[in-house]
Request: fold
Amino acid sequence: MLHMHAWKKGVLWLPLFLFFTASNTFALDLSNDESTLIGQLIFQNECASEITCLTSWNKGEDFASLGIGHFIWYPKGVKESEKRFDESFPKLLAWMQGNGVKIPLWLLNNQGNPWRSRQQFEENRNTQRMLLLRSFLIKTRTLQIEFITNRLNRALPIILSHATPENREHIKQQFQYVAHSPMGFYALIDYVNFKGEGIKLSERYQGLGWGLLQVLKHMHSSQPGLQAIQDFSASAAFILTRRVHLSPPLRHENRWLPGWKKRVQTYNDEAHKHILQ
Reply:
């Protein structure tokens, strides 16, 4: 079990090493307190901890963002080939159902977001169906945290399988440095939920992605610790800035960049806060 005060006691996040294997698999075993903290931080990042934000559709996007992780949900009828970004909300529902959670039938039967546009979504914000959806998302917050954490557990072998052979050891080493640093588990979990693994070809502009793979590849840390967290945060800010510069002008992604940079800065802030506790 990973203990949050291990850094203060002089243990350099050592328990996490026990969960790496020769096959590059990784398993993060969090306590209830740790999971709760991660959930609170991600909820703050995505929604400023506002309950109404659990059902959102951001300006300039063609999908809804739901739950504490703002899981993407495309409108019904959108072809798979037209879904540029990873659609995570159906995956969340399938995972919940597989774990015995009773899913509202309309969520399963519609086979897609029933609201076709942001305007229609906003017009229905206070309807019975939307209120029930929000209630469902409130009740399942703990499961959403578990789903997000499980995504990180799967991320490393997936990332390494998509990296070029000459970069694999470097990427794995940088991952370990961050994971063994104060609040490193928060930085990794949040970023892979925020911008993905970085492996989808559709999630690239001019051939360059912005996921965890790209952030780790751009890092050059030499050991775990605060410097590794600072390097991860700086690398994430660089990769996100590059994404905006390469993005299609019509998307106006520069409007999101200040918020994105603020988000990855929290990795530094939480690491320092943790050490001072």
